[in-house]
Give the backbone structure.
Amino acid sequence: MKTNRIYLWFVMCLTLQLSSAQITSVKHKNNKSYNIPKWEVIDVVIETKTRLKNPFVADFGATFLHENGTIQKVPGFYNGNNQWVLRFSNSLQGTWKFTTYGEDKKLRNKKGTIIVNPPKKGKHGAVTIKKNDKKFSYEDGSPYFLLAFECDWLYALDYHNNKSIPKTEHLLNLIQENGFNQVVMNVFSYDVRWKKDKELAKHPEHEFGAPKDIFPFLGNNENPDFSSLNVDFFKKFDRTISLMNDKEIVSHLMIYVWNKLVAWPEMYSEADNMYFDYVIKRYQAFPNMLWDISKEALYYGRADAKYIKERIERVRKLDSYNRLLTVHDYGFCNKNPETVDFISSQDWSHNIYNKMLDAHQKFTNKPVFNIEHGGYEKSPYVVFTGNYDNAESCLRRNYMCLFAGVYTTYYWQGTSWNAMIYNPFEQPKGVYKPKFEYFKHMNQLFRNIDFSQLEPMPHRNAGTYNLSTKDLSTVLLYIPKECHSMRSWIFRKDVKQRTFEWFNTLTGETQTYNGPVEGQYYNPWQGTADAILISKLKK
């Protein structure tokens, strides 16, 4: 009977490894060479028994030496079953030789070579920020138009499927196809505080709150055992992060969340540090990783600024890749901008354009990202309405953020929190379908016109909002559908040398404008859709 249990356990572990096929995983052999494309992740697995009391906090890793003399010290992590993992990726092509270090003698002086080859087609590397820039870009220098999608319970969608993650892949495909390239997500969320819709109880396949057997520590959320970590939780989480990396969807990873009823260990405790450090060590090699210390970091009376600063310092010390870092708390970012790479805001104001414009103008050398603007598009279940749940109103608030020069996030009540409808367009006839396509059109607009080259210039027009290049060679004017007409003198000097085209924010339809250009313009979809007038100097 014991033999059977061991065999089943072995099969389960093997299945988990196979299901994470997106990561190249190799068993270490001394002085062996391994090849990976630039920006791809490899796990070098060292198998050895240890007498360490708690391997999850052990000092273990490797020093990598590039052929040009560059040195990078990369922490490794314990993966259960006497396995230690060096997880590595790099943006520097060429030969990297590594030598391991560790508290246990058996983990020291393991040697090998990783050769980083040219990248796969379509790969751009990690998201970065050029010095004193207010816009994001990729490592290869191409612009990154951040368009985020909130999905706190993504970790749970396929947790009980040991073979594959089809639901996760289906949802991520929808996210990618509709122009979203970042998911705002938690490592772990337990349940929501608010009252749940009775209709959700009739569809348990869509309810992911209060999981009984999912927890990053031993035990469960109701009866936690903080003495050790649950390796299976992180192995399964690997599958999601790895799949997102394959699709070049950034994980905006909130390491903590205070308002989702998680039984966290005491702050600064050994268990708290163990969990926090392990997340950083395990996921830093993924180029699609971006750190956020906590959702609503200083809300709910748990953490203070001192604790958040200490967590930031821990990340900076452990992360050998220097992934971008922020804190989901405008008050903290506002008072401590030097500690974060970009400014995070959560602003529901009715005059959101003006509030975001103020933030954009205040922070002259950092991007601003409004993670939560109070618009949560409706779904078949009432989950959390915020201030707005109409799809068009939510879309407009996203555009108001963009035309103020800051980045933004989309929320759908059917995927943002505990209710997870991973296949919304396959639901029965008559069930509400989200308007993802609105954001597909938005993404396409700012793929055609580089958002990173645009700045808000509100003083240059009346009755609407604008984004312009510094030389005014490209100008975008946003006109709400209620607006009778828009006056703009921005084109007066060179109007005959310009092209004019309308863009429908709901359909993505474009229409050439051939009307009078004396300074007054009429939305061709007045009363039915917001529009953007795009004007460019003729080449």
Remarks:
- The two ends are 79 Å apart (CA to CA).
